[in-house]
Amino acid sequence: MEVLSRTIKDGRVISLIHRYLQAGVVVENKFEQTAVGVPQGGPLSPLLSNIMLNELDKELERRGHRFVRYADDLLILCKSKRAATRTMENLVPYIKQRLFLKVNRDKSTVAYIRQVKFLGYSFYMHRGCRLRIHLKSVEKMRTRIRELTARSNGWGNARRKEALKQFITGWVNYFKLAEMRTLMIEMDEWYRRRLRMVFWKQWKRVGTKQANLIKLGIAKSKAWEYANTRKGYWHVANSWILSTSVTNDRLRDAGYLLLTDCYLNARKLN
User: Fold this and answer.
1) CB distance 256 to 193 below 8 Å
2) pTM of the model
3) Within 13 Å, how many C-alpha atoms sit on residue 115's CB side?
4) Which H helix or E strand runs over 94?
5) What is the mean pLDDT of residues 160-172?
6) Phi, psi for 215 (deg, rounded to 5)
7) Residue 110 C-beta-side C-alpha neighbours within 13 Å
8) What average pLDDT does the segment 248-254 reach?
9) What is the radius of gyration, based on Cα positions, of the chain?
10) Long-range contacts: 216-225, Cβ < 8 Å, 24+?
């Protein structure tokens, strides 16, 4: 409230914000008093967070540090490990004693730039510092695609297609600043195999599998052979029979968005 009062001269606004902070919250249908902090998810939370941490920005600028901050994620760049350790030791007391904020020591660390994760990105050196996607972000993406292409969710093809399109578009546009063409090509191979596995599971019966393979251009004898195979879904999804029938172009024509296509389009627009 003291920080807000420096710039907001209208006492009514200050009073309204003060009342909001003391209004309490409802947790699991029970009212609880607000002793400290801002209700998570409230409309004022990100605004007040940035106002508070703006004081930290000004302190870092006063000390001559190079830094980048997004919400409460902060990256301070130093020339050596010794300088970084000294900065950490000097800054934590300021955050605790002057701003009355808690520092997550488990997530706060001194590390070389290649070992840093920031907003899902990691960094590498090649003619300067460049961006790549952190391995944890890649694994989260794989997990999400695995969920969207699971047969256990009970979705039809239209809903699955739309969900995949929304997720891939959002994910690629967020990470498009990174160098990831090779990664997208590799991920697409796995992703297309997941889609072919979904189709193979959907066909279920031997007669349905044979009929669909014939419609997609497979010879009747080969279609009958694969329709009766005892191999697992994941194994068949990587076979030449599905690669040559459920082709990449057919997946595109059916409306499935591929990662590489989305990435290349995003880079063009960028």
Assistant:
1) no
2) 0.78
3) 7
4) helix 81-97
5) 94
6) -60, -30
7) 14
8) 92
9) 27
10) 216/245, 216/246, 216/250, 217/244, 217/245, 218/244, 218/245
